[in-house]
DNA sequence: TCTACGGTCTGTAGTTGATACAGGCTCAAG
DNA sequence: CTTGAGCCTGTATCAACTACAGACCGTAGA
C-alpha cells in the first residue's frame, strides 16, 4: 500500500465514488465532458480527487436535468473563473424555464389522462372512454 | 379532378392533414405503427381517410406522452375491439403514474433550481450560488 | 414543348445520452 | 499458478425521429 493508492483511482473506483456508471465515464471522456485521464504504463486510466469532484459536479447537474450541452457550458464557466455569476445565472434561468415548461406540459397531460381514465367503466366490454377520447376528431 | 382525388392522398397531404412530419410517416410504417399503404403504378404511396384517422390517433396519443410501444398496444386494442375497457384502463393508468412521477421529479428540480438562482447576485463577479451549489459535496 | 418546381422514392447517417457486449489483456490474492 | 475482478478498444443497441443524397416523376406556366 504505497502513497499513490490514496489518490490513484481506477475506473471502477471513480464509478463507485460518484455513483456514475462505469461505461458512462468513458462516454463522458469521448464527448469531452471529462478530460482524458493520465494512463499507467500499461495504459490503464488513472484518476484522482479532481476527477471525482468534476464528475460529481456533472452528476449533480444531470440530476437537476441539465443537458450535457448545458453541463459543458457550466463546466466552461467553472474552469474559467474569470466568468461572471451573471453568465451562470443566465444558463440556470434558461434551464429553469425549460423545466417549468415541461411541468406545465405534463400537468396538462396528467389532467386529460386522469379525467379520461376516470370515465372508464373498467368493464370487460369493448367500449372505452380512453379509446373514444383518442379516436374523436 | 376525378373522384379519386377526394380520398387518394400523397404523403405530403397526409402530413398536412395530421400535422405529422413527412419523414415520420415513413418511419411509422417501417416500425409498424402505420400499415404499408397501397402504391400507385409508379410506386407512390396512396393514403385514404382511414390512414388519416389512424395517424391522428397516434398523434393524439403521442401528445399525451404515450411511448410508441404503448401506442402500439393501444392500437392493438383498437384494432381488436374484442379487447376490454379494463385492459385499456390498465395501460392508461400505468402511463398516468409515469407522468405523475415525472411531474414530481421536475417539481423537485424546479424548487432546487429556483432557490439556487434566487441566491445569485447576478454580479460581474466569479462567485456564484449556482456553481457553489453544484460544487458542494 | 420546354423548363422549373415541388413532390416522391430508397437507403443510410446523424441526433442525445447513454448502455452493453465481444475479445483480449493485466493484476493481485490465495 | 490459478482464479476472478478489472482493464482495454471498438462497435452495436436503444427511442423516436430527422435529414440528407441521388434519382425519378408530374404538372403548371411561358
UniProtKB/TrEMBL annotation, chains A, B:
Stretches assigned to the HTH merR-type domain: 14-77
Gene3D superfamilies hit by this protein: 1.10.1660.10
Any matching Pfam family: MerR
CDD domains, alphabetized: HTH_CadR-PbrR-like
UniProt keywords, alphabetically: DNA-binding, Transcription, Transcription regulation
Cited InterPro entries: DNA-bd_dom_put_sf, MerR-type_HTH_dom, MerR_fam, Tscrpt_reg_MerR_DNA-bd
Signal sequence interval, chain numbering: none
UniProt-recorded name of the protein: Helix-turn-helix domain-containing protein
Organism: Vreelandella neptunia
Amino acid at each position: 500500500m504505497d502513497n499513490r493508492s490514496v489518490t490513484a483511482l481506477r475506473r471502477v473506483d471513480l464509478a463507485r465514488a460518484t455513483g456514475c456508471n462505469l461505461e458512462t465515464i468513458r462516454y463522458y471522456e469521448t464527448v469531452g465532458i471529462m478530460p482524458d485521464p493520465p494512463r499507467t504504463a500499461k495504459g490503464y486510466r488513472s484518476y484522482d480527487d479532481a476527477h471525482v469532484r468534476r464528475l460529481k459536479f456533472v452528476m449533480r447537474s444531470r440530476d437537476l436535468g441539465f443537458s450535457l450541452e448545458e453541463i459543458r457550458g457550466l463546466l466552461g464557466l467553472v474552469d474559467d473563473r474569470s466568468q461572471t455569476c451573471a453568465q451562470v445565472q443566465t444558463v440556470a434561468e434558461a434551464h429553469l424555464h425549460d423545466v417549468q415548461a415541461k411541468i406545465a406540459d405534463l400537468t396538462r397531460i396528467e389532467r386529460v389522462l386522469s379525467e379520461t381514465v376516470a370515465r372508464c367503466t373498467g368493464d370487460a366490454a369493448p367500449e372505452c372512454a380512453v379509446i373514444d377520447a383518442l379516436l374523436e376528431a
